[in-house]
Amino acid sequence: MAERQGSTTPGRIRLVDVAAHAEVSMKTVSNVVHGHPHVRPELRARVQAAIDELGYRPNLTARRLVTGRTGMLALALPEMDQPYFADLARHVAELAPELGYRVVIEQTLNEMGAERAVISDRENGLVDGVVFNPTQMSSDEIAGLRRDVPLVLIGEAARPTTTDHVMIDNVAAARDATAHLLTSGRRRVAFLGMVNGDPSDANALRLQGFRAAHAEIGVHADPALVLTCTDYSVEAAAHAIETVVGRQQIDAVLCREDRFAIGAIRALTAAGLSIPDDVAVIGWDDTQIARWSAPAITSVAPDKRELARLALGLVHERISGYQGEGRHLIAPHTLVLRESG
Amino acid sequence: MAERQGSTTPGRIRLVDVAAHAEVSMKTVSNVVHGHPHVRPELRARVQAAIDELGYRPNLTARRLVTGRTGMLALALPEMDQPYFADLARHVAELAPELGYRVVIEQTLNEMGAERAVISDRENGLVDGVVFNPTQMSSDEIAGLRRDVPLVLIGEAARPTTTDHVMIDNVAAARDATAHLLTSGRRRVAFLGMVNGDPSDANALRLQGFRAAHAEIGVHADPALVLTCTDYSVEAAAHAIETVVGRQQIDAVLCREDRFAIGAIRALTAAGLSIPDDVAVIGWDDTQIARWSAPAITSVAPDKRELARLALGLVHERISGYQGEGRHLIAPHTLVLRESG
DNA sequence: ATGAAAGCGCTAACAG
DNA sequence: CTGTTAGCGCTTTCAT
């Protein structure tokens, strides 16, 4: 009874209490808790009974202190409510437990400070590894910051060779989408992808694929059809399209995001153009928006689950001791054909 | 030098190392780390220099073991990629740090086992509190399970009086939306809200509001217009509407989710009806889908940020020692008018 | 196969 | 205002 008095916190049954109750040593209780095979059935039963009776639940923090592992991964994303990132988060949250991890969410809100904090945290021992989709930091910055925890980058913003990285093949994806448009007879394809101040190189790659497809199929890629948005909003995308429609003839648009496709469709429809008869529209990311829009949007579909799986695999390997070079993995992509193109 | 040898783990600089380096006691280092005011400036500087020089970062796990607090909250949701939950998660992830917490994601995927695990975990000390949006467990079950950690329920599935709970006023919200339809002249309003096997009572409440509005405005609420879906898909919603359109005259639909509104619009449009001229459609949750759909969908908008803030406040109070009765808080809602109704 | 004891790194109570 | 020290609850050699 004496030992019961001092404690006010709940869950105060300790390993040692179970040991006392079952009249065995702590080690034996620990063995039972961990399903260690070499325990006499009789003892095991006695210990299990004590555990149940007392309602013992191991204290994770104490375990962590001694093992040095937290069993946690940080997932650092700009905004969880953006459909693409929400999808990614779902997959990560769903797959991480298979590798024995829980996931703590770190939302950077596209802020540089928050992104920096992801990499070099002021504290230690929060997580065993980090899966990070940067939007602000450049490759050099990421490579330069000293980090104390295994890190894998996801997405297309930066690729320091020293850091593990998972992405899709942006060149090939853009080439595929553009080729689809071109081979179905489109000749004036706009590229709605540039955004002012975008530090990522994803767009350069996609533009490269866009041009490659034109070259391969023998269609001139008019530079006037490479469109720039002022920001990432539906409105900015719509505005960019409005502007070009007034002065250029276009019959297709390849967008960097499904959201932009929404804006494009809106502007095109407002201009009296019909989708896809007059203008085909292709989005990017294959989010629910694309699926549910009317018309449903044809979209470049990164395999997000695979992206998540590969990223998780890489951090897990690092956590498990892999010390080698930074690895760069490519997740597959497809073009999901829907009504808009 | 001797102490450097044994350690292989990174981040192995300990508080005691800093103390030795700065030639002060551990207590003083601790005081500096915690920004404790009563430290002589000279000492503070010396300690800070040692911290920087050595790259010391406090070990959270050890701190937790002694303080008994993890500074973590679990957010348990069915699926993070559903727009409503993605929105909620964003707000929780954004607001939690203000109260000093990080957020661990727990995805239940609508599985009973996962929901049960949320409440009575086999382990202890992972998080200080839980914010939980159940979809499977009933009130009784939740109330019955012994739990060792402060819990607050969010949403509408269950309301054991013993448990803190945050929700919107479903009756009032449905009444508002229905009244909007009725006062703008609609007379045959369908309620697209029942789903087979839905354990939540949210719909009963909404139906109650739906009927109340009819009664108040003096319009007969035809029971034949209360529609049931076989599941939560766009297709099921579309199917329910197709069926009713064949045999009943309707001029408005109040949907339980924006997704259902998408399905309704699809079916209505396919039937040659125009939105909102022939049929008005109102969705629920005010997700991005509603904003970006064409036509944009008028939607019942729970104040998700407030929902998150209230929930966080409640767990935080419990964690801070509040022991009283279960509290039930109502977050505000509005009706966001868009093109569909 | 089981028991005893030494820490993991930090905080806080208690002295000084 | 600063230093000493005893744990937090668990894992894990090391004996037995």
Write the layout of secondary structure elements.
2 copies of one chain form a homodimer.
Chain A: H1 2-5, H2 15-22, H3 26-33, H4 41-54, H5 60-67, E1 72-77, H6 83-95, E2 102-107, H7 112-119, E3 129-132, H8 139-144, E4 151-154, E5 164-168, H9 170-183, E6 189-195, H10 202-217, E7 226-229, H11 234-247, E8 252-255, H12 258-270, E9 280-284, H13 288-292, E10 298-302, H14 304-319, E11 328-331, E12 333-336
Parallel strand pairs in A: 1-2, 1-3, 3-4, 4-5, 5-11, 6-7, 6-8, 8-9, 9-10
Antiparallel strand pairs in A: 10-12
Chain B binds a DNA duplex (16 and 16 nucleotides) through helix 3 and helix 5.
Question: How do you describe this structure in short?
Answer:
The structure is a homodimer of 341-residue chains. By secondary structure, chain A is of the alpha/beta class.
The residue-averaged pLDDT of chain A reads: 91
Determine the N-to-C terminus distance of chain A. Answer: 75 Å
Biggest beta-sheet profile of chain A: 6 strands, parallel
Pick out the low-confidence regions of chain A: 1-10
Secondary-structure element pattern of chain A, one letter each = HHHHHEHEHEHEEHEHEHEHEHEHEE
Total helices of chain A: the number is 14
- Widest sheet, order of strands of chain A: 2-1-3-4-5-11
Largest interface: A-B, 53 and 53 residues
Oligomeric state of the chains present here: homodimer
Shape descriptor of chain A reads elongated
* Secondary-structure class of chain A: alpha/beta
Tally of strands of chain A: 12
What would you report as the Rg of chain A, rounded to the nearest angstrom? 26 Å
The proportion of strand residues of chain A reads: 15-25%
Q: Which percent bin holds the helix content of chain A?
A: 40-55%
